[in-house]
Hints:
Elements: H1 10-17, E1 31-32, E2 54-56, H2 59-67, E3 73-75, H3 79-86, E4 97-100, E5 110-111, H4 114-124, E6 129-132, H5 135-138, H6 141-148, E7 152-154, H7 170-179, E8 183-186, H8 191-198, E9 202-205, E10 211-212, H9 217-226, H10 237-248, H11 256-262
Parallel strand pairs: 1-2, 2-3, 4-6, 4-8, 6-7, 8-9
Antiparallel strand pairs: 5-10
Helix pairs in contact: 1-3, 8-10
Amino acid sequence: xxxxxxxxxxxxxxxxxxxxxxxxxxxxxxxxxxxxxxxxxxxxxxxxxxxxxxxxxxxxxxxxxxxxxxxxxxxxxxxxxxxxxxxxxxxxxxxxxxxxxxxxxxxxxxxxxxxxxxxxxxxxxxxxxxxxxxxxxxxxxxxxxxxxxxxxxxxxxxxxxxxxxxxxxxxxxxxxxxxxxxxxxxxxxxxxxxxxxxxxxxxxxxxxxxxxxxxxxxxxxxxxxxxxxxxxxxxxxxxxxxxxxxxxxxxxxxxxxxxxxxxxxxxxxxxxxx
Length: 274
């Protein structure tokens, strides 16, 4: 199994949906898209073995993969949607905004004015703001403390790397927080904004987009042009949500039996009830 299949506990969520042991997911026969992107579904720099399957979130991503020579791309929908389908909705009232600042990772650091972004957020949002930092920024005391001065600060957990230290409840933590908030926003269109829209939050994308070291900025500009319905401080919720659900592959989810066959899990033993 490629180690990125474990990122955010994706393999664990899919195993649980299939009735298998979510703590010890079987090996997946291919690569699972682990985040929203505008190319072939693989993460930047992911080594690809020609002829191996890619399991992507949406038909649009499958078509891009095909155009890039990835002939074995199959649409399965986002793992987050599988989790969402198994977790009863909360009846608790929603309040405020959960805000996801654009983040860096091990290979690239973020550059931008966090304080200017915070000031714009507090001027725009009309309720309490929860700042959800990616693990990379959450571990940076200087960045985290800046946000702590402005509101509640959380982190959903560590993504994981090479099968180590993965927070297998990352998506569970994220789903619970999204369902507690009325709005979801970020300064870049991302998986988190799409997930929030899928859970009933009003999505928004605004503010200084910041930049990664060595980033090819034409891609970020293309995203703003191609998905205008998700950008702005108060985009139309219906249009924004419909676009988000399409990007996540809503309507393409497989049944547990179908997904086991797609991922090569037909011979795996089902989990023993507790």
